[in-house]
Amino acid sequence: MQPQPHISPTTATAAISAALESQRVRKNRGSYNCGRCGQPKKGHVCLLTAPPDIPTTPIASEPVSCISAAASSSRSTVLSLTTAPSSRQSFTHLRRALSFDDIDARNSLDESDLDAASADLDLHLDTDIVQPGRFHAVGLWEVLKRLPPSSLLMAARVCKGWRETSRKMWKAAEELRIRVPERAQIGYIGSLLQKCPRLIRLSLKIESDFDATTLACIAFSCPNLEVLEITTSGAAVNRISGDELGRFVANKRGLTSLKMEGCSNLGGFSLSSSSLSTLWLSDLHSLSKMIFNCPNLTEISLEFSRQEDDSTDLVTMVDGLGRTCTRLQNIHIASLKLSHTVVLALTAVNFRYLRMLSLVLGIDITDASVAAISSSYTNLELLDLSGSSITDTGLGMICDVLPDTLSKLLVALCPNITSSGIQFATAQLPLLELMDCGMTVSDPNSDDPTIVENPSPHKAPGYNQKMFIKHKRLKKLSLWGCSSLDALFLNCPELMDLNLNLCSNLHPESLVLQCPKLQLVYASGCQDLLTGAIRKQVSENFAAGENHMPRKRLADASKRIQALPSLYEETREDDNYAGKRRKLEKEVCTIIH
C-alpha cells in the first residue's frame, strides 16, 4: 500500500471551496436538480410533489370577491382569489425575475415622473390567508392600492403574485391622475392608458406642447371615459383646434365632463353631444364661432384671455346657449368684454333652472345690470359680480330679491362698494354662508394691492372705514386688500375661514372677533401685533366655549362641582402641572401670515 500524502485541513477546505466555486461558475442556467428532494430532474418524479388540487399561485380563476372604487362611482369589478391551506406550499414554485414579462413596466421615461395615485380600491375577501408563508391577500391589496403608478409598476417586478395583483389593480382602476413631464412622448401616455380598460375619470397635467394626437390616443385607449381634465403647466402650449375638439366630443358618446386649459388656438368650435353635462374652457381668445348643441349641459365655464384685442361676440354666444342649452344651472363667464348688453341678452334667454351666475371682470356691468338680473332670476344661490362697477344700491337690489335663496355673494374688486353696503348685505341675507369683499374698502391712493404702505396720519377722505358684521350662518369671509379698513367687529358663531390679507390699516385694539369656530385666518401683509391679537382672541373664544365647571353626579343623586381654575392659579408654576397643560393645549386656529 502506497502511503497517502498528508493533506492539511486548511488545504482540504480550500480545495473544496475552489471546487464549489468552479461549479457555481459553470452553472449558467437554472438548477438541474429537484428543488424539493435534491435528485436529478431527468426522469425524476418527486415524491414531495404538491397534490394536484392545490393551486400553485395565489391568483386563480374562481371569483370570490368584489372590488369597488372608493370614489363616487358605483361600478365594481371582480377579482379572482383562492386560498390553499397546505403549509407545504410556502416555498414552492418560486420564479426567477428573468422569467417575468415586465415589458409593459419599462419605458424611456423615469417612472418617478408619475406623481399621483391611480384608483382607490377596496377589497373584501371571504378568506384570511392566501398561502401560509406568503403575503396576506388583504394586506397586499391594501398596500398596493395606496401606491402611486410609478411604485405600482415597480411592485409588479417582485414576484408573479404581485405582478398578477398589480395587473388586476390596473384593470380595476376607474380614475387616473398623471403628470406628463416635458420630455415624455405620446406613446408613453398610450402605454399607461392601455393598462386601464375600465378607466372612467382621467386627469392629465401636461408640461409640454400637445395637439390633437393626445385626444386621439385618449379616445382609442379609454372607450368608457366619462370625465376628462387637461391642465397645462409652465410654458406648455395647447395646439388643439376647434374642429379637432368638436370631433373628439362627438365621438365620445359617453363623455359627461370636459375641462381643458390653454384653449387659445381653438379659433372657433362647434360642440355636439347628448351626454355632456359639464364644460370648462379657459384662455379663450377671439373666437369666430361658438356653437353648443348640448341639450343636457348643466354647467359651463368660459374664461377668456385678458387682452383688449379680444373680438369674441359674447351676445351671439349667449343667444346660442339659450336656444340649445336650456337646462343650464351654473354659468361662469370671465371676460373684459362683459357689458350691460351681454347681461340683457342673458336675461332675455331666461334660463329656468339657473342657480349660480358668475360674471367676472365686467367693468361695464352696473346697477342697471343688477336690476335686470334680479328681475329675471329670483332663485339664485350664488352670484359673483367681481370686477364690476356696481355700488351699494346694487347690493340693496340683490338683498331685496334674493333674501331666501342666496347663500354665496362675491363682489371682490368692486371699488364703488363701501363698508356700509357690506354691512347691509350681511344683515339682509340670512342664508349667507360665503362672502368675498376683497379690494372693495381699499385705499384710493394705492393702485397696487400688493404694496403694503405704512398708514399715514393724513389720509384721504373715506380712508378710515369701520365694519360691524353679525351673522348666524356665515362660514367664510374674505376682506383681502381692504386697506381702508381700520376697525372690524365680527360676531359670527359659525365662521371658520377669515381672509385679512393686506389689511394694513387694521389695528389690534380695533379688532374684535367673537367667532368660536374660527379655524383658518389669513393675515399676510398685516401688522405683527394684529397677528398676536387674533391668536389671543381666538384662544379666548375657544376657552369660553368650554365648560370650566364640570359636574359629576354622585351615587346619592347629588352633584359635585369642581373648583374653578382660578383657585389653583398659584400651582401653575409646578413643572409637572405645566407639562400636563402643554400636552392638553392644542392649536385651535391656524394663522397664515
Automatic annotation (TrEMBL):
<dbReference type="InterPro" id="IPR001810">
    <property type="entry name" value="F-box_dom"/>
</dbReference>
<feature type="domain" description="F-box">
    <location>
        <begin position="140"/>
        <end position="169"/>
    </location>
</feature>
<dbReference type="InterPro" id="IPR006553">
    <property type="entry name" value="Leu-rich_rpt_Cys-con_subtyp"/>
</dbReference>
<dbReference type="GO" id="GO:0005737">
    <property type="term" value="C:cytoplasm"/>
</dbReference>
<dbReference type="Pfam" id="PF00646">
    <property type="entry name" value="F-box"/>
</dbReference>
<dbReference type="InterPro" id="IPR036047">
    <property type="entry name" value="F-box-like_dom_sf"/>
</dbReference>
<dbReference type="InterPro" id="IPR032675">
    <property type="entry name" value="LRR_dom_sf"/>
</dbReference>
<dbReference type="InterPro" id="IPR050648">
    <property type="entry name" value="F-box_LRR-repeat"/>
</dbReference>
<protein>
    <recommendedName>
        <fullName>F-box domain-containing protein</fullName>
    </recommendedName>
</protein>
